[in-house]
Amino acid sequence: MTPLSPIKSEDLKRFLSGWERREAPPPPGVYVATAGYQGRLVEDYCARYHLIYLVAVYDRDGACRDLYQCCSAPPPADAPSRCFIFGDVEWREELAEKCRVATYLYKFDDIREALTKLLEFGMHVRGIPCTYFSIDVLKITGWCDVDPICCDVSAVKEKLVESVSQRRTSSSPRRGEGGETDGASGGGGRTAEGASSEGGESASSSETGGGCGELIRRAAEDLGDVDRLKRCLCR
Amino acid sequence: MPLIESLLGECKRREVAEAHLRLCALLLMYKSLPGRGAVYLRPTAYRVPVQRLLDGMAGLTGEDKRDLMQKFMKAVGEAVAELKKELGGVASAENLRRALLRRLLEELRKLA
Fold first, then answer.
1. Which residues 6+ apart lie within 8 Å of A158 measured at CB?
2. Which residues, 6 or more positions from B84, have their beta carbon under 8 angstroms from its beta carbon?
3. Residues in contact with A120: Cβ distance below 8 Å, sequence separation at least 6, in sequence order
4. B38–A1 CB contact, under 8 Å
């Protein structure tokens, strides 16, 4: 079984300097993402390491005295919750018996800054791909602009289609033009791949005239039986 | 995941699959991940998913299928070898998901 890698303590110290540490389960709040450990793996992990939770407490008006308690208070009007959590696994009661827990809390007066901090921790310290975070979190933090692929792959889809059509257009005239270029790139068209693709283009080549004739001439040099080939390709 | 699904849909086109074998192989591997538990890393585990993808491709002759299958399995084999180096022979589904996603994002960034 591959061991789940714990966070390096120096990374943790560097990233969380100034955060309040508590040896307690995370308070109520909204999870922005989890590292995603499951079932028995969590127990194996717990036997050796603390489960780590980061809690960003959104406190715009500065009303929170005890950050932990503040998470149980009603959320402000402009946010779905007062506390946003990134953790190794979403907390559940049965973990309390098996796991040691460290919860780090920090107060933010800007929700964007709070979420960005959690996102950076997840991606840079914990090594979670951006796609583990919800689109909403990625949008609010501006991460969709930094790395658009995390939010939308339509640009990639366009590129896929574009690159394929470019390949098609750049390869089809070469086949019709003459022996040198085609022979150099395709190895004489003797492979299954070559045969099938050339077969697929034979209709358009016959329409243009010279393309098919040239193809037949070249194939005849290799195969000999011109008429049979012609019947197959140039009807 | 909709991002993965929509890209995998493109891979059902023969031209796309042929031109972007590694990307399509990674997408297929990601799609075939179990939700939880441990996963043995071996290329043959992806044979059936590849076959299904090829079955859904229009206009392939038997010869084309065999040829494309070979190419796909080569790409899968390379990806599995990389993942084995990183994770070992058996990985948790979650670790494998993460490692695959990282590779997928790398491939996508190259394109975008």
1. none
2. B41
3. A15
4. yes
Chain A's closest residue to B71, CA to CA, is A193
A186 at the B interface (CB within 8 A)? Answer: no
Q: Please give the model's pTM, rounded to 2 decimal places.
A: 0.70
Residue A178 CA to residue A194 CA, distance in Å, equals 16
* Secondary structure of residue A91 in the 3-state scheme: coil
Residues of A in contact with B7 (CB under 8 A): 153, 156-157, 160
DSSP letter at A75 equals P
Rg of chain A taking only CA atoms, in angstroms? 31
> A142-178 in b/e burial notation, b at 16+ Cβ within 10 A?
ebbeeebbbbbbeebbebbeeebeeeeeeeeeebbee
Give the separation between CA B95 and CA A210, rounded to whole angstroms: 56
Q: Which residues of B touch A126 (CB under 8 A)?
A: none
Angle between helices A210-223 and A179-186 (to 10 degrees): 60
Interface of A with B in 11-50 (CB under 8 A): 35-39, 41
- Lookup: tokens for A102: 């460290």
Tokens of B2: 């909709």
Please list the alpha-helical segments (H only) found in A187-233.
192-208, 210-223, 226-233
Going residue by residue through chain A (235 aa), what tens digit of pLDDT does each one get?
Answer: 333 566 777 778 888 889 999 999 999 999 998 776 656 677 778 888 888 999 999 988 888 889 999 999 888 888 888 999 998 888 888 888 888 999 999 999 999 999 999 999 999 888 889 988 988 999 999 999 999 999 988 888 888 888 888 877 776 654 444 443 333 333 333 333 333 333 333 333 334 444 555 555 665 565 555 566 555 555 4
